[in-house]
Amino acid sequence: MPTINISQLTENGDAVVIHFAVEGQRINAYTLASTLVGIADAAKAANASLNIGYDVEIVVEALGPGSFRAMLRAVYKEAHNLFSREPVKAIIWGIVSTFIYEHTLAPSSEIKVEIRTEEVIIQNGKDRVIVPRNVYDATQELQHNTAFVQGINKSVQAITADEDITGIGFVSRIDSPPPDLVISRDALQTLEFNLPEEPDTRVIEEQVHLHIVKAILEASSRKWEFMWRGVKISAPVVDKGFYDRFYAHNIRIAPGDELEVRLAIRQARDPRTGIYTNVSYVVLQVFNHIWRVRQTNIGGDN
After folding, report:
1. What is the pLDDT of residues 257-270, one digit of tens each?
2. Of 59, 62, 118, 300, which one has the fewest beta carbons inside 10 Å?
3. Strand-pair partners of 195
4. Which residues sit opposite 269 in a β-bridge?
5. How far apart are CA 218 and CA 119, in angstroms?
6. Angle, nearest 10°, between helix axes 133-141 and 29-50?
7. Closest CA to 4 of 137, 174, 176, 164
8. 226: nearest Cα among 283, 267, 291
9. pLDDT at 228 over 90
10. CA-CA distances (angstroms) from residue 59 to 29, 72, 215?
């Protein structure tokens, strides 16, 4: 009996591997990018609902064969707010995989759901998914979370538009054997979500570290220059409290120093791929100033 046990699938807690069933060991770059962006959006929406006080960054940690695989890891960061002492619930990958498995099995009239104290068993004929009860309950809560469902929908649309992909599944490690239960492309095409159309632009906020390239040492709308994730960006700093500390000489800024900030990122949607790209930035709040490590000549000039 083909069985997926979500607790085993997500045994790494903060990581999961997406298995793409394709001929050979390659995949279209747009399909991969759109799928991973959608999954990441869904994961971030789940985290925002479950882990108040923690931001999450979704990173691609590894690619591998089998037919083609991508490992995603959730990197949690404590946010600067009153709720940041709540423990992280590392179940977002369980929620994402449960939602997809459940909805691709659900259209059948043969679907059976058995709710137990510690787990829930979802079965359609010989196909069976075993879900920890806490993951199942959290998944039900997110059924009407627009951002979460939009992320899943974006991934499904990318996969079903690529005729080279015959199905997908999830495994726990990059070298795991193929999943017992692969969701066929035909099953994915049956999924329908009644969702509002995505906006052409949106603003998201993230807690990030920025390396200073050029500082504007006066409160104004002029843009600083930073390095972020290997890319130079420009953004004004609108945190009045930060400038108050600077004018009081509590902060001394130099190029190469680092700021831990709350960054507002304005994004525009590509109508062809549905992927949002960053177009502008604003530093809303500065949490911490980190001096760049500077070398000191202790032996005198040579």
Report:
1. 999 999 999 999 88
2. 300
3. none
4. 276
5. 57
6. 100
7. 176
8. 283
9. yes
10. 16, 6, 29
Q: How far is CA 298 from CA 48, 292, 302, in A?
A: 49, 18, 11
| Cα dist from 162 to 158, 199, 275, 284, whole Å | 7, 24, 16, 40
For residue 96, give the DSSP letter: H
Is pTM, for the whole model, over 0.85? Answer: no
Edge-to-edge strand list for the sheet holding 112-115: 3-5, 127-132, 119-124, 112-115
How long is the chain?
Answer: 302
Residue 249 CA to chain centroid, in angstroms?
38
Taking a C-beta distance cutoff of 8 angstroms, is the pair 139, 95 a contact? yes
Q: Which two tokens stand for residue 61?
A: 């940690």
Query: Which of 13, 37, 4 minimizes the C-alpha distance to 276?
Result: 37
Q: Side-chain half-sphere of 206: how many Cα atoms within 13 Å?
A: 18
Contact of 45 with 37, CB cutoff 8 Å: no
pLDDT-based confidence at 255, cuts 50/70/90?
Answer: confident
Tokens standing for residue 135: 């993951």
Q: Which residue has the tokens 């591998």?
A: 64
